[in-house]
Design a protein that fits this description.
CATH topology of the largest domain: Molybdenum Cofactor Biosythetic Enzyme, Chain A
Number of domains: 4
Oligomer: single chain
CATH class of the largest domain: Alpha Beta
Number of helices: 6
Helix content: 10-25%
Number of strands: 28
Radius of gyration: 31 Å
CATH superfamily of the largest domain: MoaB/Mog-like domain
Largest sheet: 6 strands, mixed
Shape: elongated
Strand content: 25-35%
CATH architecture of the largest domain: 3-Layer(aba) Sandwich
Strand order of the largest sheet: 7-4-6-5-9-8
Distance between the termini: 25 Å
Length: about 400
Amino acid sequence: MLSIDEARARVLAAVVPLGSEEVAIGTARGRVLAEDVAAAHDVPPFANSAMDGFAVRAADGLAERTIVGESRAGAPAREAVGPGEAVRISTGAVLPAGADAVIPLERVEERAGGDVAADGDAPHVGAAGGRIVPTGAVRAGDHLRGAGDDLRAGEVVLRAGTRLGAAALGVAIGAGRGTVRVALVPRVAIVVTGDELVPPGAPLGPGQIHDANSIALAALAAGDGADVVAVTHARDEAEATEAALAAALDDADVVLVSGGVSVGPHDHVRPALEDLGVVEDFWRVALRPGKPTWFGTRGPTLVFGLPGNPVSSLVTYVLFARPALAALQGAPAAQRASAILGEAVPRQEHRDEAVRVRFAEDGRVHATGPQASHVASSMLGAQALAIVPRGTGELAAGTRVAIEPL
C-alpha cells in the first residue's frame, strides 16, 4: 500500500492544469488568478483627508483662519489654501493645493460668517467666509492619506494562484482592474453506487440508508472552486455502473466515484473503469479510514474511487481530490501545519490514521469523539485531520503531529 504522501504525489503528477479565460471582476469571486495583478496607478491616487474637518497650512499654528471653500469626495475644491485660510473637507476628499494638514471638526471652534442663506437665516457653520480657530496643536501631515500610501503604480499586488475572495477582489478593483484572467473552472461529476442508497428524506426500507455522500462531496467540490456538472446514482449492477461512469467521463475534468471500489461480488467500479479506458495508477492506501482508495486517469481526466463509507469518503476527498482540484486551477494546495496532541491517541499498526480533531484554546488538538469510520458525527466540529503515524501502542499526549486543515 502507498503512504498518504506517496499517493498524493502520484495524483499531483497526473494533473494537467486547465486553461484560463478573462472575466469581468464582478463575476470572479472564488476563481483563481492565472496572472499577476499589478497596480495601474497609485492607491489612493491622490492625497486626501482621513477625517471630516478643515484643510489648512500647519505653519499658521493656532491662528484664526477664514473658510474659503469646500472639498467633497468626488468634488475637489477649486480654491487653494493660502495663509490664514482653510477649506472645509470631507473624509476621502482631495487635499487642496497649499494645505499640508487637516484639523478634525471636533478640534476647532467654528464661528459663523459669510453669505446670508437663501431663506434669510444665518449661514451654516463652516460656510465660506466663516472662521475657525484650532483648539490644539496643528502639525504637517496630520490626518492625511498620501498618494500611494496603500499601493504604488506598477507594484504587483496579487500573485497568480490567488483565489479571489472579497478582500482580493477589492484590492484588484482598487488597483484599476475591471477584468481578470482566471483559471477555467474544473468540471466535476459525482457517481455514487449502492443498492442500499435512497435520496435524502425518503422513507427507509429494510437495509436502506440515506445517500449523504452525493450531497457532501458536491458541497466540498463546489467549495474548492469546481462546477459540479452531474450527480448520478448507480445501482450495484455492472451495466448500470458502466453507463453512469461513461457519462461522467464524457462531461468532466474530475470524476468522483463513491463506493464500489473493493473486490466484493457487487463492486463493479474498477472493471467498469478499465473497460472505459481509465488507466489505474494506484489502489489502496495505508490510511485509516480510506484504505480502498483508487485513482486513475483517462487522458487528462482524473478519476477518484473513494470508499462509500461517509467518513472515509470525506477524508480521502480532502487528502487526495482537494489538492488535485487546486492544482488544476494553478492554486497552491493547503499547507500542512503541525499541532500538539491534547491526549493520547491509539495507533494503527499498519496504517496511518486521519483523526478528526478540533483545536482547544491552548492550541492543542483533541479528537472530536469516537473515530470509527462509520461515525459520521465525528466530522462535526472537526477543524483538521491529525495524521497519526502507524505503529504500536499509543501516541502520547504532547506529541507533535502533522495537521491537514479542513
